[in-house]
Specification:
Layout: E1 3-4, E2 8-9, H1 10-16, H2 29-40, E3 44-47, H3 51-57, H4 61-67, E4 72-77, H5 92-98, H6 101-104, H7 120-143, E5 147-152, H8 153-160, H9 162-171, E6 188-192, E7 198-202, H10 206-216, H11 231-235, H12 239-250, H13 255-264, E8 271-274, H14 277-282, H15 284-288, E9 292-297, E10 301-306, H16 330-336, H17 341-349
Parallel strand pairs: 3-4, 4-5
Antiparallel strand pairs: 1-2, 6-7, 7-8, 9-10
Length: about 350
């Protein structure tokens, strides 16, 4: 399912572009020598190996700190460096499970846990680790110190759900799963349109836009209805009735027809189409901001790929190369470390690289 363009793994392609790849056997003495030469001239060492494996390979923080005291030693773990789960195997789905995410997503009327389709825990942890590394580099610049940075799948997912966890902790009652039939504000809800596609309304200030909403949805007869006229005057209490009415209204036009009507009437309230992934890849708003970009892949041809979420005014990001083949840059890196071609041939023969 993940294979593409002559055997390229899409998951590998997604996270390894603009990188170089070398092969190195750290279990052999000379392999370790090469590794330490790289460590000495590097800003950051990054791993997702367990602490135990790092110690075994001589790649633990204490060892590498001796080689390069200003090194940022960064690790992505499953559950964090301490505690009973520190050495347990884990993956994206186990982080989804243990962080509360699988319990939280989905509708309240269907209480079984749900798993997200893509590896969002892996991505969130990688993002948090990058953030941690950048903060450590700034601390090094200011204070002249290298340090260890540990970010876990579990901790990253708690951070992602901070608001829900804080509400549960501080108010003493759990953040509730969404319920589209019982949500207190019908204008922070999603509705099915006439073509089976869905639209999202997300307007916390419903009273401010109530006149406009009634007008654009052609439900003017409800504007002064005492059940719905204001949020606190009854709309919260009677929201299930209004949601039933809106369910019928939205079925009278296709999703794109509703979007066109809202766009043309320049309504002030917040709304958006609910897209599938194919639609995301074609959307003009996504494309014009380079969130999705076109790229000439060496084996896949011209393809659409993920762009960069952050925009830099003076130092823009760019996709310079596809994900490397395994060991593609071994010779280039070794030459930069002052190894000769004869050295490289010998290292290859001995299986060190």
């Amino acid at each position: 399912a993940m294979s593409w363009a002559g055997g390229t793994h899409v998951g590998f392609e997604t996270v390894n572009r603009n990188k170089k790849s070398i092969t190195l056997d750290l279990k052999q003495g000379e392999g370790k020598d090469i590794f330490y030469k790289l460590v000495k001239k590097s800003d950051v060492f990054l791993t997702n190996f367990s602490e135990r494996i790092c110690h075994k390979l001589g790649a633990d923080y204490e060892t590498l700190h001796k080689q390069n005291p200003s090194l940022i030693w960064a690790r992505a773990s499953n559950y964090g460096p301490e505690g009973p789960y520190a050495e347990k195997r884990g993956y994206d789905p186990t982080a989804q499970a243990m962080s509360g995410l699988m319990w939280a997503i989905g509708d309240r009327d269907f209480p079984e846990p749900m798993q997200t389709g893509s590896a969002i825990c892996d991505t969130m942890a990688a993002t948090m680790l990058a953030y941690g590394i950048v903060a450590a580099l700034l601390a090094r610049e200011r204070l002249g110190i290298g340090q260890k940075v540990d970010v876990s799948l579990l901790g990253s997912m708690l951070h992602l759900q901070a608001q829900a966890l804080m509400v549960t902790s501080l108010r003493g009652r759990s953040w509730a799963r969404h319920s589209r039939k019982r949500v207190k504000n019908p204008f922070t809800n999603h509705y099915k349109c006439g073509d089976g596609k869905w639209i999202m309304l997300s307007e916390a200030q419903a009273d401010r836009f109530w006149h406009q909403i009634c007008s654009v949805l052609e439900i003017q007869h409800l504007e002064d209805d005492p059940r719905f006229a204001t949020a606190m005057g009854g709309r919260r209490e009677h929201s299930p009735e209004l949601i039933e009415i809106l369910d019928k209204v939205f079925l009278t036009k296709t999703r794109d027809e509703w979007i066109t009507v809202f766009d043309e009437q320049k309504v002030g309230f917040a709304y958006a189409p609910i897209y599938d992934y194919y639609e995301v890849l074609e959307d003009q708003q996504v494309l014009v901001n380079d969130y999705i970009v076109e790229f000439d892949h060496p084996t896949g041809g011209r393809v659409k790929v993920i762009g960069f979420p952050a925009k830099f005014g003076e130092t823009p990001c760019d996709i310079q190369s596809a994900a490397p083949e395994h060991g593609q840059h071994t010779e280039e890196v070794l030459l930069a470390l002052d190894y000769s071609w004869e050295d490289i041939a010998r290292l290859r023969n001995e299986g060190i690289v």
